[in-house]
Write a structure and sequence with these properties.
This protein is an alpha+beta fold. The protein is built from three helices and four strands, in the order H-E-H-E-E-E-H. The protein has a four-stranded antiparallel beta sheet.
Amino acid sequence: MSDRVPPRSFLDLAVPVEVWLAQEEIPLGRLLDLQPGGLLPLHCSPEGTVDLVVNGEPVASGELVIVDGKFGIRITTTTTQKLAALDGGTAGGARS
Protein backbone atom coordinates (compact mmCIF):
# COMPACT_ATOMS: atom_id res chain seq x y z
CA MET A 1 0.00 0.00 0.00
CA SER A 2 1.34 3.43 -0.97
CA ASP A 3 1.81 6.39 1.41
CA ARG A 4 1.15 8.91 -1.35
CA VAL A 5 -1.51 11.61 -1.02
CA PRO A 6 -4.91 10.49 -2.34
CA PRO A 7 -6.04 11.92 -5.67
CA ARG A 8 -7.98 15.20 -5.51
CA SER A 9 -11.20 13.39 -6.48
CA PHE A 10 -10.89 11.39 -3.24
CA LEU A 11 -10.92 14.61 -1.21
CA ASP A 12 -14.16 15.65 -2.92
CA LEU A 13 -16.05 12.57 -1.68
CA ALA A 14 -18.96 13.32 0.63
CA VAL A 15 -18.75 11.61 4.05
CA PRO A 16 -21.44 11.33 6.74
CA VAL A 17 -20.88 13.86 9.50
CA GLU A 18 -22.69 14.03 12.85
CA VAL A 19 -22.93 16.87 15.34
CA TRP A 20 -23.23 15.60 18.90
CA LEU A 21 -25.00 17.95 21.25
CA ALA A 22 -25.47 15.74 24.31
CA GLN A 23 -25.43 12.19 25.56
CA GLU A 24 -27.97 11.11 28.14
CA GLU A 25 -28.83 7.93 29.97
CA ILE A 26 -32.53 7.35 30.40
CA PRO A 27 -34.45 4.30 31.53
CA LEU A 28 -35.67 2.08 28.69
CA GLY A 29 -39.23 2.48 29.97
CA ARG A 30 -38.99 6.26 29.52
CA LEU A 31 -37.69 5.78 25.99
CA LEU A 32 -40.56 3.43 25.14
CA ASP A 33 -43.05 5.98 26.51
CA LEU A 34 -41.91 8.72 24.11
CA GLN A 35 -44.73 10.01 21.92
CA PRO A 36 -44.90 12.70 19.23
CA GLY A 37 -44.95 16.04 21.01
CA GLY A 38 -43.27 14.57 24.09
CA LEU A 39 -40.27 16.25 25.64
CA LEU A 40 -36.93 14.67 26.43
CA PRO A 41 -34.91 17.21 28.41
CA LEU A 42 -31.16 17.30 27.81
CA HIS A 43 -28.82 18.24 30.63
CA CYS A 44 -26.69 20.63 28.60
CA SER A 45 -26.59 24.33 27.95
CA PRO A 46 -27.64 25.65 24.52
CA GLU A 47 -24.47 27.76 24.65
CA GLY A 48 -22.27 24.73 25.32
CA THR A 49 -19.93 23.10 22.84
CA VAL A 50 -20.90 20.43 20.34
CA ASP A 51 -18.67 17.81 18.73
CA LEU A 52 -18.27 17.30 14.98
CA VAL A 53 -17.99 13.54 14.47
CA VAL A 54 -16.84 11.58 11.41
CA ASN A 55 -17.04 7.79 11.42
CA GLY A 56 -17.68 7.76 15.17
CA GLU A 57 -14.59 9.86 15.95
CA PRO A 58 -14.79 13.48 17.14
CA VAL A 59 -12.61 15.56 14.80
CA ALA A 60 -13.61 19.08 15.87
CA SER A 61 -15.75 20.99 18.33
CA GLY A 62 -17.60 24.24 18.15
CA GLU A 63 -20.69 26.19 19.05
CA LEU A 64 -24.18 26.13 17.60
CA VAL A 65 -25.15 29.17 15.54
CA ILE A 66 -28.17 30.06 13.43
CA VAL A 67 -27.45 30.75 9.76
CA ASP A 68 -30.34 31.80 7.51
CA GLY A 69 -32.83 30.34 9.99
CA LYS A 70 -31.05 26.98 10.23
CA PHE A 71 -28.60 25.53 12.73
CA GLY A 72 -24.92 25.56 11.93
CA ILE A 73 -21.70 24.91 13.84
CA ARG A 74 -18.89 27.44 14.22
CA ILE A 75 -15.71 25.39 14.58
CA THR A 76 -13.58 26.46 17.55
CA THR A 77 -11.08 23.59 17.79
CA THR A 78 -9.99 20.71 15.58
CA THR A 79 -8.17 17.47 16.20
CA THR A 80 -5.56 17.93 13.48
CA GLN A 81 -4.19 14.40 13.75
CA LYS A 82 -7.63 12.85 13.17
CA LEU A 83 -8.38 15.23 10.29
CA ALA A 84 -5.03 14.35 8.74
CA ALA A 85 -5.94 10.67 8.88
CA LEU A 86 -9.11 11.44 6.90
CA ASP A 87 -7.32 13.12 4.02
CA GLY A 88 -4.10 11.15 3.82
CA GLY A 89 -1.98 13.32 6.08
CA THR A 90 -2.50 16.70 4.44
CA ALA A 91 -4.85 18.34 7.00
CA GLY A 92 -4.19 22.00 7.31
CA GLY A 93 -2.82 22.13 3.77
CA ALA A 94 -4.16 24.46 1.13
CA ARG A 95 -7.45 23.57 -0.50
CA SER A 96 -8.53 24.91 -3.85
